[in-house]
Amino acid sequence: MAIQHKRLGSHGALVSNLCLGTMNFGWFADESESFRIMDRALELGINFFDTADVYGWTVEHGTTEEIIGRWLAQGGGRRDAIVLATKVYNPVTRRGSRPEPNSDGRSLSAVKIRKHCEGSLARLRTDWIDLYQMHHVDRACPWPEAWQAFHALVGQGKVVYVGSSNFAGWDIATACQEAARFGMSGLASEQSLYNLNARTIELEVIPACRHYGLALLPWSPLGGGLLGGALGKMQAGRRVDEGFARQVEKHRARLEQYEALCRELGEEPATVALAWLLHNPAVTAPIVGPRTVAQLDSAVRATEVVLAPDFLQRLDEIFPGPGGEAPLAYAW
Description:
This protein is an alpha/beta fold.
């Protein structure tokens, strides 16, 4: 398989089948390592980069976008070589800024969308965002208001596509139907929690994405590390926090079967978890969040692994999911 380029759902843009998630930039990866990761991604053929205005966390909101902006400012065709995605919804508090309820709160108001887009453009040092995503649904904000704001940004050439993240199936349907009233193409993508151990979106989100032509971009493809060989690493003496240890114990029976199956195949658990997603025709690009270049190279291995039908069936037996799509999963 290797790195391939696929349509962004039913839209025309071509994106790599792995998306470089940058959440760790400025947090677990310093700026120089972040630069190396992005350069290596381009060498590997990964052209799809994802970030968010809130990333930076304990350093400062927006720090990650600033790191990407400084990397882009080096030139060398970097900006034209990538499809750049960022997000709006969460609070973005910056040093020296005055308290302001729109920036400091969570919403998809027209004021916040416009203001946060301008902030992201400045930090990213770019004139446009290829995919501007709603980081979460805001059911208290009228859809006509949100779409009017996005429509203006598209008309100004500041945004190309609009996407969603953490939407329910009916939120995707509502958003796309409302967009049609403005003559817009609707949502281009949905970022959802999806991995072997978290398959709830198979009920209604994946069917909605398929119906409306959205690219599906799974986040946390390794389940927060559970699917990355957690048992083996703990047995080797790696220190983990108490919360993670509790999760390992909760899922120990499944993880024991899973890691044993991966050993049979001769592949690392993290590789198998990513390969499972890549074998799903509903998935456009899992989002990987490397802290080092080595982790990025390891993730790419998943694009080369072929999982046989009987192996996929054994994975389903360990991690059965919700039983298919609604309503057949629970009714008739």
